[in-house]
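Exercise 7.
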Amino acid sequence: MPLRHMIADALIYLKEYNELSAKNKREKSYSSSGEFLSGLTKTDRLHPVIGLCIYYGEEKRDGPTNLVHMIQVTDDLKPMASDYKMNLLQIRSIEHFHFQNIDVQNWLQESTPQ
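Solution. The predicted structure, written as tokens, is:
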């Protein structure tokens, strides 16, 4: 599951990068060859992508929530391996969460398996 979330987030970042790069090319916004080659100016910033996996299963989810837990890597190489964390909300433990938006709170409570 962390791999699917990482790919989805990367595609969202890629879409935004492509839009910024096309805008910069159209407006000739580059002030250096490095900016031209990258497609981005030094002041360009991407918006953060915050993904949330909502798990509805009756059983507690026991799968990995980090990419590093899905790959086979020796302990000495693990610090160098890129990791990706998946944000997970398990509906079965909704009583531990309180939301400011009452509609969200009610929807989640009604969705909780009995």
